[in-house]
Amino acid sequence: MKKLLFIISLFVTLEAVAQTDAESIYLLAWKRYNAESFTEAGELFEKSIKAGKTWPGVYLNAASSWAMAENNEKAFENLFKMIDAPGTLIKITFWRNFLNLTSITKARSGNG
Question: I want to staple 69 with a disulfide (CB 3.0 to 4.6 A). Which of 30, 39, 53, 103 is the partner?
């Protein structure tokens, strides 16, 4: 019984460490975004996703970073991943954000 409790507590501890790491990466991504280091921010948002921070807003933040870095392929990749992310995202929100991102991209390129 003691071994089982030890194993369970070890898994809980590892999960807590992983979540703390994901949160730290996420906060660093915001710092890089606010410093207008958009490519680095996009990379860090994606790294936070891989570390376990997978709610839909993180994908949107990554997409926004990539759009600001003028990397449309990565921006749309993250928007499409956002649809399947765990959480309570409804598709109307996705399409609204998709249209906003398209408008921003067109305005930046002078086509809007």
Answer: 39
